[in-house]
Sequence to fold (379 residues):
Amino acid sequence: MNHTIDEDTHHVAPPERVESVAVFAPALLLSIELHRTGDDLDEVHLHAGGQGYWISRMIRALGAHPIPCAGVGGESGDALRSVIAADGLDARLTAMVHANSVVVDDRRDGGRVVVAETAIPSMGRHEVDELYSAIVGAALSAGVCVLAGTQLAAMFDPDTFRRLVSDLRRNGVTVIADLCGPPLHSVLEGGVDVVKLSHEELIADGWAHSSSVAAIADGIARLHREGAEAVVVSRQHRTTVAGRDGRIVEVRSPALEVLDGRGGGDSMTAALAVAAARNMSFEDGLRLAAAAAALNVSRHGLGTGRRDSIEDIADRVEIRAVNHSDSRTSDPTGLDELTKSDLYDRAQSIDLAGRSTMNKRELADALARHLTADGPHDA
Fold:
């Protein structure tokens, strides 16, 4: 952190305050990527990866100080220690017996082919205790904590999340949870400030039956009743839907061509955490989050972006209030919010005649007639 000198007094001015965010990132992995140079030569890149680590990178890109807490073990863990040190992140690492997961991707032809992938390890009781201590200390110091990176494996008892959230919030820490499945249910039991989900996770966990605004609003209301103060649901290539204090809003960011659709949701989570650390309003936080996601998917590399560009894009993000009852009345089936591909899949599932020749509007109308004839459903 740099200090500035006052030329008149020659005193060292205090450094500019940099907000910190603790990140619970237990599922840390080693990413090995094969690329081809412009001279048609092979090259190999090593990166630290995993949801929590990508979130940490975007937190840093936004000008805040991330403190990722994770376990490392085995040969891959040794490599991760070096990669993380070279990356310059202030990580608090806990030793594990088992090796970290390794993913090998072949990107030499421009796409992504997974060559090999090892399993994410479970953690022993004493290792969990050490990691728990690390994240509690970092979170109490930072005042804001992100819980992420556990969807791929049951690394430890999900009740650990309930205990962790309860301990942190009891001590004034703001908690943002990017979780699904049993870990999400555990943090809801403990009470959580912000839950971030993709619409796929929302549907898979049974909180909503479709990606329509009306269905997502219902899911947000359910999550609120279960213990979430605010909920943010990202929908790939569509508007984000968020709710807090009984108010539902749609968030629309400027359209940018997508180079890599992965990582947009993680960038959104990172920005929500930075906004909380900066005491920004919920809506301003949504603007920053939508801008970070939009810029990240337009770039190569997860958790990357420029702070100045993200803040410029945030100024152009639109937020509009959604009247939940009106949205259900105007489109009770939720079909208008689906893509043509989604509509076709639904038509195929019921063997709807003539579906292959229908446009999006015709598919929606035909499915609506089917649903009305078959009784009320939430699409």
Remarks:
- DSSP finds 13 helices and 16 strands in the chain.
- Residues 13 and 73 are 42 Å apart (CA to CA).
- The longest strand covers residues 29-36.
